[in-house]
Amino acid sequence: MNQVLILTRNVLAEQEIQRKLQALNYEVYCSSKIFETCSQQLDAREFFNLFQYVILSETICEGEVIELIPILKNYPVLIIRKVESNVTEADQQYLEFEQLNAIISSGDSVDELRECLYNLKKNRNLTEGTQQNSNVVQLSGKVSLIGSNYLQDTGRYTESNRRIIETLHRLSQTESKILSILIEAGNQIVTREEICHKIWKEDVTKSHLASLSSTVTRIKMKFEQANLEKIAIHTLWGKGYRINQNLLKHIQTDELYKSIVSNG
């Protein structure tokens, strides 16, 4: 059984979400006391080790969320923000920079909650178990990248393109699919909903959007760690994503695709 902790200012406000989670066989602990003391008592923080998910209630204001997130990041928990209805721009930014793992609303159905929590756990397991040593990385249905060992045997690639391919080689399957969608779009903006639909082939849910935000952040970090474009993917609030045009130019130069892309 998975354990869920709900941090709130009013436990009565959490009765409905608690009922739904318990219907899904989650063990739910709802507390206002832990919320009030965790920022002051270090012993209280160890309590978080008992849970897989921590839900921050809509009764907790944004300033308090900002204080709580760094504390929760020290523990192996998935952080979920519960909102009354609409997702604010601040909430979306938390998702984008992986400060939150998901956002749910008080009106979400049992089905929506089930899929959200399942996908969060699944994505974490996939991330932890990602294999990065395969010789070929599938970028899309018709595009695959030859592994980095092959590149070391050739001298026809620029240093920038070599590092790009090394980075592409380290992307997970989902990360590669997202990047492929943005590459194909060129200088066009691709909406978050469109990307989600292309990846999961089903109606877009909050868990899909949360997973997309986290995955895009991981892509950005991998390119930045390779000393490539500091912002590999641009986020246009309320519109979607667009690939960095300098990065796109690098990928498309030096006959890179002709040399290492397999058109299956």
Automatic annotation (TrEMBL):
<dbReference type="InterPro" id="IPR016032">
    <property type="entry name" value="Sig_transdc_resp-reg_C-effctor"/>
</dbReference>
<keyword id="KW-0805">Transcription regulation</keyword>
<dbReference type="InterPro" id="IPR036388">
    <property type="entry name" value="WH-like_DNA-bd_sf"/>
</dbReference>
<dbReference type="InterPro" id="IPR001867">
    <property type="entry name" value="OmpR/PhoB-type_DNA-bd"/>
</dbReference>
<dbReference type="Pfam" id="PF00486">
    <property type="entry name" value="Trans_reg_C"/>
</dbReference>
<keyword id="KW-0238">DNA-binding</keyword>
<feature type="domain" description="OmpR/PhoB-type">
    <location>
        <begin position="141"/>
        <end position="245"/>
    </location>
</feature>
<protein>
    <submittedName>
        <fullName>Helix-turn-helix domain-containing protein</fullName>
    </submittedName>
</protein>
<feature type="DNA-binding region" description="OmpR/PhoB-type">
    <location>
        <begin position="141"/>
        <end position="245"/>
    </location>
</feature>
<keyword id="KW-0804">Transcription</keyword>
